[in-house]
UniProtKB/TrEMBL annotation:
Keywords of this entry: NAD, Oxidoreductase, Porphyrin biosynthesis
Chemical reaction(s) catalysed: precorrin-2 + NAD(+) = sirohydrochlorin + NADH + 2 H(+)
All residue ranges annotated as the Siroheme synthase central domain in the record: 120-147
Protein name: precorrin-2 dehydrogenase
Organismal lineage: Bacteria, Bacillati, Bacillota, Bacilli, Bacillales
Length: 221
């Protein structure tokens, strides 16, 4: 079994090809769309949900069987037909030097595999078993979803906005480091979880920080 390298890939507007339009292809397409990829689908038959995505112009679809000339010019190719031999044949016809390939029924041939994802706004947690047990990756994803609830969407936006502001304040490395630590105190997560407005919280914290910095600087001068 392979040992994989995890990375976060920017697929915005990148051309991605999915061959086969069944249940598994549907799952891969939904996650590609979440990453703003430009998805093309080739398959004679597709699921009702994929039909809807085609009608909404969110993916393009060629209603036909795969041809050898199809597999050129993509960042990512997902091979998801239900025929093992065909999937292997497609693998042979892909130029692997320039394209990342996921063969859904053959981890050994794939140049990348897809983890189970917890999606909480800026926070994404990926769970992988390296193909040992995709079912376990899904189970752990479901457990982590309880631990990292929807409040993390607002919370990570709060952290991102505060961080950007702190970076613009012309502080010393030491001051910045202390503030980033301060932001991670559990109290802020708790307050957001309880429904306190993120924007008001940000205003209050900025005031506190400014006061403290001014006080410290007066003491030092
Ligand atoms: C190697 C990999 C390649 C890839 O697809 O990238 C792969 C391969 C295969 N999956 C198979 C089976 C199942 N896959 C799932 C589910 C998911 N599979 C996903 C990823 C991966 N699956 C990659 C490894 C990821 C890793 O281990 O880290 C997830 C995480 C992500 C996603 O697909 O988006 C998504 C969960 C999403 C979620 O819910 O969070 C379930 C459960 C279910 O469907 O409910 C089952 C049945 C239970 C079981 O088998 O465990 C089979 C056998 C098919 C057969 O029996 O013929 C193969 C082929 C083989 O192993 O040879
Ligand atoms: N990686 C994963 O997470 C999982 C992988 N699998 C594997 O994935 C494969 C696909 O599973 P499902 O999506 O459930 O199958 P499915 O039967 O729902 O879909 C297969 C799709 O392939 C298309 N297809 C068939 N011949 C084609 C051709 N010549 N050119 C283009 N498209 C063609 C069909 O039209 C259909 O849309 C299975 O063989 C299974 O071994 C199964 C479960 C999970």
């Amino acid at each position: 079994m392979n040992r994989y390298y995890a990375m976060m890939v920017n697929l915005t507007n990148r051309p991605c090809l999915v061959i086969g339009g069944g249940r598994v292809a549907e799952r891969k397409i939904l996650s590609l769309l979440k990453a703003n990829a430009k998805v093309k689908l080739i398959s004679p038959v597709i699921t009702p949900l994929l039909e809807t995505l085609v009608q909404e112009n969110r993916i393009s679809w060629e209603k036909r069987e795969y041809k050898r000339q199809d597999v050129k010019g993509y960042s990512i190719i997902v091979v998801a037909t239900d025929q093992k031999e065909l999937n292997q044949q497609i693998y042979q016809e892909i130029d692997h030097q320039y394209q990342w390939v996921n063969i859904v029924d053959d981890p050994e041939l794939s140049t990348f595999i897809v983890p189970a994802m917890i999606d909480r706004g800026h926070l994404q947690i990926a769970v992988s078993t390296s193909g040992a047990s995709p079912g376990l990756a899904k189970k752990i994803r479901q457990e982590l979803e309880k631990q990292y609830g929807v409040e993390y969407e607002e919370y990570t936006t709060f952290l991102a906005e505060m961080r950007e502001w702190i970076l613009q304040q012309g502080l010393t490395n030491e001051e910045r480091k202390n503030l980033f630590e301060y932001l991670l105190e559990p109290d802020f997560l708790r307050r957001i979880e309880k429904g306190e407005s993120k924007d008001l919280l940000i205003l209050k914290i900025k005031e506190t920080i400014k006061e403290n910095i001014n006080k410290e600087r007066e003491l030092l001068s």
